[in-house]
Structures are given as structure tokens and as C-alpha cells.
Amino acid sequence: MRARDFGLVCGTLPTGAGNAITDVPGVRVGHQTIRDGEVNTGVTAILPHDGNLFRSKVPAAVHVINGFGKSVGLVQVEELGSLETPILLTNTLSVADCAKTLIRQAIAANPDIGRTTSTVNPVVCECNDGVLNDIQAFAVSEADALAALHAADGGVVAEGAVGAGTGMVCFGFKGGIGTASRRLVIDGEDRHIGVLVLSNFGRSGDLMLPDGTRATPDKRPVLPVEETEKGSIIVIVATDLPADYRQLGRIAKRAGAGIARLGAFWGNGSGDIVLAFGTASRIDHDETRDSVPSAMLNEARIDRAFQAVAEATQEAILNSLCAADTFQGRERTVKQSLAAWLMARRG
After folding, report:
1. Which UniProt keywords apply (predicted)?
2. Distance between CA atoms of residues 304 and 329, nearest Å
3. Is 345 helix (H, G, I), strand (E, B) or coil?
């Protein structure tokens, strides 16, 4: 189930056809889910296009809301404003294996990497799923990362406890993968902003729904302010708007508004990172011209993109919570589904 099945609507802008990041043409998503006893984890892959990303890069930007994280590749994305591998999401201790997979895949397609051309910048982001997963088992392998990449398609995106979201917890409920999109009309054409989240953040009792209801799992009272806010959220933003990396950075910042609307305040122990990329233009690795043209959004119109990413982020998080069933993980720890909570409230 998704948030709209419970009448939870975020904002006023129209959604894309699938209300998912894959509404952005060319974007694909794949999951590899691992559930085996105490192990509850996985990998999620996001691909901006079907081609050779190293040779045909896309503009990208990073916004770090709170930097409590162990991601790979973000420094170069921020410096050069481009993305040259797919994005992999996983648990904190599996970043290295996922990065190695991206490197091997890039070299297989581009044998000149590290020889006669530059090395490659793999991008992997993570959240700590140790509450529900035996993270010390190092269960994610290179084969799992490869499986997520091979599973990627542009259809319906599985949400909830799948892929990297298998063992995640959000506001005390079962969290995980969620997605949403918004449709904008630019120069008479439909354009999209799509968001995919890996939700693993927020204190139990802090979740504020769009209808003004405060949702607390297991009917517990709101926790005292001494309770720490820990966890993480990774927000991936895709768009086919004509935006350069600076504008993508401005758009990425507004994802924080969507997170905050739900009651989060980005605590000291929370890693909150946004990575945005655009598909409307490409950056040719083998470019020979001294200067290249660039398309940009008129910044007098960019507020619509800001609103779209805030709304889509808020809804993607709620979708991650509604799609996840009540879940028993490591050491019999149980996390309730928000959908179950909402259905119980309906009576």
C-alpha cells in the first residue's frame, strides 16, 4: 500500500504517471533483497540511463544535511558536478563491496580506465540497518550488488522492506525504500522530478502525518526529549528538467523541507544526504571541444522545482513506511508497519 491509499496527500502538484522516480524517462531501479535468519539487508541500484555512464556522464550535485555517513564518491560529485556510475544503496558495512562492483563494471565496459584515461568514481550511499539486521555478518557480496544492477528496469518500483530498505527503521516504524514524483510543464512539455528514499531516521513519536496526526508505533506515548534522533536517510533526486549542477544542488537542498515536514530535525547521529542528477543533458568523457553549450532552467521558474522535490520527498518517505509490512528482525526485534497503524486507527 502507499500513502494515498490512506488519503495522505503531500502538497498540490500533480504526480507523474507512476508516482515514482522511474517517471523520469530512462531512469531504472533494481533491488537485491537478502533475508536469511538474523540477516535482513540488501542492495538497491539507481541507473540514470541505459548507456555507458562513464563515457556519457550526467550532471549531478550533492547536498549534505547532516554528514553522519560513510558514503563513497560524493566528494568528486560535488567537485566536478557529474555522475559516472550507477548509484548503489546498501547498509553501512557493505559500502566497499558495492563500490568494488561498480568499479569492476565500469572497467569491463571501459578498459582504458586507470590506464590511458582517468580512474572511475563509484557512488555508494548507506544507512545503518543494525537494529533489524546482523550487520556484522557482512552478508552483502559483489554478486548481490551486481544482481541489483541487473534487476534494474523502468517499471513499477518495489517499495518498503526490499533491497537496501530490507532492515531499515523510520520514526520507530518499519522503514525502507519509497518513491514518488511530481510533473511540471516547462516550455509546453511535461517534465518530472522523481525521488527515491532509503528511510532509516527519526525518533519514535515524532512522525507528523500530512493530516496533522502524530503517529507513534505500538500505541506508546511520545518519547521524552532525551531520546536521541539517530539513523539516516538517503534521498536520490532525478529530473529531466534542463538544469546544470548548480541548479541541481539548489533543488537537492529543498528535499530537506520534505523531510522536516514529517517531524525530523536531523539529529547529531543521523546521516541525511541528498544526491540529485539530471538526464536532460550529457557530459561526454571524450569531449574535444574547448567549450560546450549548456541548457539551464530559467531561475524565475525554479520555485516549481523546489516545491516538487519537497512534496515528492515527503510522499516518498510515507510510501516507504506504508509499503513495509510489520517486520521481525534480528533478536526477534519487531517494527510495526505504518499501514497497520493507519488501518487500526480507521477501526
Report:
1. Aminopeptidase, Hydrolase, Protease
2. 41
3. helix
Q: What digits encode the pLDDT tens for the residues 9-66?
A: 999 999 999 999 999 999 999 999 999 999 999 999 999 999 999 999 999 999 999 9
3-217+224-285+292-325: CATH homologous superfamily?
L-amino peptidase D-ALA esterase/amidase (3.60.70.12)
270 given a catalytic annotation: yes
Residue from 94, 204, 232, 320 carrying the catalytic annotation: 232
**Is 158 within 8 Å of 32 (Cβ atoms)?**
no
Residue among 97, 129, 206, 272 flagged as catalytic: 272
DSSP state of 208: E
- Cell output for 14: 500533480
Catalytic annotation, pick one of 204, 270, 320, 337? 270
256-280 pLDDT, tens digit each: 999 999 999 988 888 999 999 999 9
Tell me, yes or no, if 56 is annotated catalytic: no
How far does Cα 279 stand from its chain's mean position? 16
| 8 Å CB contact between 76 and 275 | no
- 187 counts as catalytic: no
Model pTM? Answer: 0.97
Instruction: Tell me how far apart the alpha carbons of residues 44 and 125 are, in angstroms, rounded to a whole number.
Output: 10
